[in-house]
Design a protein that fits this description.
306 residues; 26% helix; 5-stranded antiparallel sheet; 20 strands; alpha+beta
Amino acid sequence: MKTGRPKWTAKRLQRAVQHVQGEVCWNEPLAPLLSLQVGGPADVLVFPSDVEDVIRVVLGARTEGIPLVVLGGTNVVVRDKGIRGIVMQLKQLTGLQEEDGHVVYAQAGVRLPRLMQFAVGHHLSGMEWAAGIPGTVGGGVVMNAGTRLGEMQEVLKGVDLVNLRGHRVRIEASNISFAYRKATLPKGIVVGAWVQLALSVKEQVEAKTKTYLQYRRETQPLTLPNAGSVFKNPPGDSAGRLVEAAGLKGVRVGDAEVSTKHANFIVNRGTATADQVLALIRKVRQTVARKFGVRLQLEWKIIGES
């Protein structure tokens, strides 16, 4: 996405984040924060220290008219020229607690594997499907994260959200519309979620989790930088099957490669750029469309300036 010159000044950008208690970094590279390890810098990168700090960022950006992007680590590609305005990363929001009725509240920055391990440690079942998924609770809610074994909507009870006016609200899962890799939420920032789990025998949960994790290790390129599944599965078919049938496994553009282990993954072989990744995506889509008449839809989000 090409944009014109920003309509705000450096002073307005500084004022927008002047009350933030967490870490504030200027012209900060984003690639190290992303699982695919590509992408340009942010004008300003903010790591809020808590939910109140998130509210400060939201209100500062709103007052000064600065665009605000919440950045997860997976399922996203940042273009090589980076992101203008404020980028917020919620890695400091890592609170976890069990509540009555086998409900677990997890803040948005909690990694899904950690939530799964927390559940196992408390003899709770329901998160086993998340074994090996590298994303966070916040991203998992927004993307309705899942695998063939389960997905977020099956356990989600409620969402803790800061809306664009800086108000903290609870959204019940019954009021959220879910689709494949998507949850329709009010505009705002997910800062936490409540998941409804079930009491189980710890050894049974551990065994099930181990089986799921082993399956992912055997079938997905977990040892190389990647951003998860690239394309959504078309109705009644598999994106990975189509890409493999098109003869695209191992095809590269620079250091971006269609995984030889799973064709619906693109991996970074070393020094891939976002441009190379996007060029490879175009090549895959064009080839699959030409050979099978199927237009693959992206599961990833593409953001930033080209």
